[in-house]
Recover the amino acids of this structure.
């Protein structure tokens, strides 16, 4: 019953804030302020879970892990182009999700949103996923592993007044340096550790949740 109440409160807040598009200006650090969580500091990253950053757990991604991430990116990138960097980023994000999942117990995080998810420390909603993916992207950026992209501030789309299929949904973003195109990096759609979808932001979630893109391979 307590979980049901939490979910109802969560749904009410989403309904109250609903709109067609929530664009956000400014650096990604503003997102952490908005959701009352800590931005990455040095090698320490605060991981959100239990829905809506209800639980926050610090995780260290140090030099040893960065070397492994760099090796993974080099392994999958076939050329030094923005498109291949996005492919490498997808694999790097999935690597970090698995690493973090084993550290804090979210390795069993299931795709999408569930009625019993709020308050469950093993599960993550789109706010958690967008926040954490932004942190993972900042790991790459701050360690010189991004040449063609810059990390952006998460944004959302949706309108719950049109039904559950139009639930407000958040995603991490990044901008391609040469073109300025914004790309959505969405991990919420899949189980923990699967590659996120990386698609142009203007093609992401245009109608409802059923149209969310497939993972990047």
């Amino acid at each position: 019953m307590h979980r049901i109440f939490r979910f109802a409160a969560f749904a009410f807040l989403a309904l109250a804030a609903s709109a067609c598009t929530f664009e956000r200006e400014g650096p990604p650090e503003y997102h952490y302020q908005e959701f009352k969580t800590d931005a990455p500091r040095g090698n320490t990253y605060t991981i959100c879970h239990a829905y809506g950053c209800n639980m926050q757990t610090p995780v260290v991604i140090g030099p040893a892990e960065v070397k492994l991430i760099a090796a993974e990116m080099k392994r999958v990138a076939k050329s030094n182009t923005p498109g291949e960097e996005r492919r490498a980023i997808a694999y790097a994000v999935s690597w970090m999700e698995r690493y973090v999942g084993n550290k804090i117990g979210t390795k069993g995080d299931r795709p999408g949103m569930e009625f019993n998810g709020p308050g469950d420390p093993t599960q993550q909603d789109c706010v958690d996923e967008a926040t954490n993916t932004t942190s993972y992207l900042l790991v790459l950026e701050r360690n010189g592993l991004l040449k063609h992209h810059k990390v952006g501030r998460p944004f959302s789309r949706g309108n719950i007044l049109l039904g559950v299929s139009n639930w407000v949904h958040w995603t991490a973003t990044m901008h391609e340096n040469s073109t300025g195109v914004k790309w959505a990096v969405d991990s919420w759609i899949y189980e923990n550790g699967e590659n996120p979808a990386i698609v142009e932001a203007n093609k992401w979630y245009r109608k409802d949740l059923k149209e969310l893109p497939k993972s990047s391979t």
